[in-house]
Write a structure and sequence with these properties.
The complex is a heterodimer of chains A (about 270) and B (about 120). Chain A has about 270 residues and is α+β, with helices and mostly antiparallel strands. Chain A has two domains: about 5-110, Beta-grasp domain (Ubiquitin-like (UB roll), Roll), CATH 3.10.20.30; about 115-255, Alpha-helical ferredoxin (Fumarate Reductase Iron-sulfur Protein, Chain B, domain 2, Orthogonal Bundle). Chain A is built from twelve helices and nine strands. The termini of chain A are far apart. Chain B has one domain (about 10-115): 3 helical TM bundles of succinate and fumarate reductases, CATH 1.20.1300. Helices cover about 80% and strands about 0% of the residues of chain B. Chain B contains five helices and no strands. Chain B has helices spanning about 10-35, 40, 45-55, 55-80, 85-115. Chain B is elongated and about 50 Å long. In chain B, about 10% of the residues are buried. The chains are: A alpha+beta (about 270), B mainly alpha (about 120).
Chain lengths: ~270, ~120
């Protein structure tokens, strides 16, 4: 690092929530002073703490590019991805890092996502077709045709990275752990709106006492989503179908046979 | 998930929304009917009893009673459901709010019938 770089380097106080569920020693905050530059993210600062100041700080991270959804935490009280939050954009001298609300804490900033993923699994998040989507019997492969309009109906919901920020921001989840949460409900809509899906009982999954009707429409889920997904919209669209306000005119996607022999032959010549 | 219910949650919520919207209209009519006479007169005993003899007014009162009771007690059920998550609590809350709703409608209807002199 040369002298010019040092001049441009500022310092910030990072206040990190510390708790070890295994030791049951209670919780406290540790403050660390770390250098940062214009492009430094909160995750970079936490990794600096881990590398040079206190290696015992527990964080979960992987891709560092807002794709894996591992580094979700509350930064200055708002659920955000640490890798997607620049320190310079926060415009505060102290940054408070806390674990996500509505998730059991494992240690420090690492939370337990088991219940969150169980809610996701309950929604049967996969295409259910009466016929197999792809088959290689008799050397025939089929795919389904979808128009751009068909794709637009669910595309934004397929951008979900399961980071849990919406689940953490949801006030209903805070009081009712049996409520599936915005992520799971948005995924239910994603598959319900997909023309390749032929499941007839998707809506019944969430039509119960702790299901979709417990959403208060606070809208905080959509506000915190780092991928621009609007789970609140998905929930309202599902409700309108369940109330009969919107008619389900979904036309099953056309099945198209792909001639692989031709492609293989043209590829080899 | 859950099954074996008399009504699905979506059907209950449909009733909830319909009763809520309908209640706004009947309460508006009820208030407007009060406003067509001077306020002091609207509170006099004879005027109130005479209102109970008016079949149109009686129907509005009965509608208000039923709509508000159904909507209100279901609202209380929804709020209480979020307090705890157990089958016994949910069933108890459902039975309690439904019973209270039926009791209130029965008592209110009895009052309307008695005042009407039927």
């Amino acid at each position: 690092m040369n002298n010019t770089d040092n001049k441009n380097e500022n310092r910030i106080t990072l206040k990190v929530y510390r708790e070890n569920r295994g030791q049951k020693t209670g919780s406290h905050y540790d403050s660390f002073e770390v250098p940062y530059r214009r492009w430094t993210t909160v995750l970079d600062a936490l990794l600096h703490v881990k590398s040079y100041i206190d290696p015992s700080v527990a964080i979960r991270y992987s891709c560092r590019m807002a794709s894996c959804g591992s580094c979700g935490m509350k930064i200055n009280g708002i659920p955000r991805l640490a890798c997607y939050t620049k320190i310079s954009e926060l415009e505060t001298s102290t940054i408070e890092c806390e674990p996500l609300s509505n998730f059991p804490i494992i240690r420090d900033l690492v939370t337990d996502f088991s219940l969150f993923f169980n809610h996701h699994k309950d929604m049967q998040p996969y295409i259910q077709s009466n016929e197999s989507v792809e088959t290689d019997t008799e050397k025939k492969i089929f795919s389904f045709y979808q128009s751009p309009e068909d794709v637009d109906k669910y595309l934004q919901f397929s951008y979900c990275i399961k980071c849990g920020l919406c689940y953490s921001a949801c006030p209903t989840v805070g009081t009712d752990l049996r409520f599936p949460g915005p992520q799971a409900l948005a995924q239910l809509y994603r598959y319900f709106a997909d023309t390749r899906d032929e499941s007839t009982n998707r809506l019944n999954i969430v039509d119960d006492r702790h299901g979709i009707w417990r959403c208060h429409f606070a809208g905080s889920c959509s506000k915190v989503c780092p991928k621009g997904v609007d789970p609140a919209l998905g929930i309202q669209l599902l409700r309108s179908y369940m109330l009969g306000i919107s008619k389900n005119n979904k036309q099953p996607a056309k099945k198209i046979e792909i001639n692989t022999d031709k492609e293989n032959n043209s590829g080899s010549s | 998930m859950e099954s074996h219910r008399i009504l699905k949650e979506s059907q209950i919520m449909k009733i909830h929304y319909i009763t809520g919207i309908a209640a706004i209209f009947v309460v508006a009519v009820h208030i407007l009917m009060r406003l067509i006479v001077p306020f002091d007169l609207s509170l006099e005993y004879d005027y109130i009893i005479s209102n109970y003899k008016n079949i149109f007014y009686v129907l509005i009162l009965e509608s208000i009673l039923v709509l508000i009771s159904v909507h209100g007690f279901n609202g209380i059920r929804i709020i209480l459901l979020e307090l705890r998550q157990s089958k016994s609590w949910e069933n108890m809350i459902t039975v309690a709010t439904t019973s209270a709703m039926i009791a209130l409608i029965a008592y209110g209807t009895r009052t309307i019938i008695l005042a009407n002199g039927l």
